[in-house]
Amino acid sequence: xxxxxxxxxxxxxxxxxxxxxxxxxxxxxxxxxxxxxxxxxxxxxxxxxxxxxxxxxxxxxxxxxxxxxxxxxxxxxxxxxxxxxxxxxxxxxxxxxxxxxxxxxxxxxxxxxxxxxxxxxxxxxxxxxxxxxxxxxxxxxxxxxxxxxxxxxxxxxxxxxxxxxxxxxxxxxxxxxxxxxxxxxxxxxxxxxxxxxxxxxxxxxxxxxxxxxxxxxxxxxxxxxxxxxxxxxxxxxxxxxxxxxxxxxxxxxxxxxxxxxxxxxxxxxxxxxxxxxxxxxxxxxxxxxxxxxxxxxxxxxxxxxxxxxxxxxxxxxxxxxxxxxxxxx
Length: 329
Fold this sequence. Notes:
Elements: H1 2-15, H2 34-37, E1 55-72, E2 75-95, E3 98-103, E4 106-110, H3 115-125, E5 141-145, E6 151-153, E7 159-160, E8 164-173, E9 177-186, E10 202-213, E11 216-227, E12 236-237, E13 240-252, E14 255-264, E15 268-269, H4 273-276, E16 280-289, H5 290-293, E17 301-309, E18 318-328
Antiparallel strand pairs: 1-2, 1-18, 2-3, 2-4, 2-5, 3-8, 4-7, 5-6, 8-9, 9-10, 10-11, 11-13, 12-15, 13-14, 14-16, 16-17, 17-18
């Protein structure tokens, strides 16, 4: 699966004429905690990214480790896995202020190989282990039963994630800033029975304000999301807020360094911490332009990011994100 992702990116590199790569966009990070992946989780965007009439193909690969064990009052949440996500996104600028996007993720959950070094790291620095010592290393489990009738169980087989359709409409633009309206629909293409989808669609609306001055740049984004999932026994699904703040600095023509925080509410009201707790992620990464290294000004863009879960629940423990982007006419 990983080899297929990189091969597809390389084919696009050689087959299509390039346009300029944007080094000031946010990092392509999203929440990879499986119960949260049942619902729409926005990947931060930029109001300043080019709206020229063109296509942009992005291929992002995420590899995360997740371990949550919460038995409480007859309910049980068990998430123990390493998860690879292949995130292809196609964007198209309809006119100079409007862009539409399509995301079609593929998920590959498995038992993984990193439990031992993560346990050693947590012990060395005094971090909580989230129950890792209660299960054999490098084993897989994904099951939720709230003891009131709501439950799902996943397996370690490849899965299709939830397809997302979104739009970005630039409302205002100044010399160094811009404001854009955002909207999205999550389609119920992931399995509800195996815990990767909620069943019905989610609808979402939001906005992003972006600034770029000298070598620095920033993005502030917010969303209101309404899941249309029906309540289950002991679980109520409710509208929730998500937001992000991105700060970056362009070191030179080829690389920007970026820090990003993402958080908000949970769509769950269940009295179970591993579902209800507000998620919060911190990311540090680089965004670059390979063509600039060779003396050009356009072509293949890349990102490399480390993501950490500060809250220790309702988000992946830690993940690595590698992305490629290719703008073309």
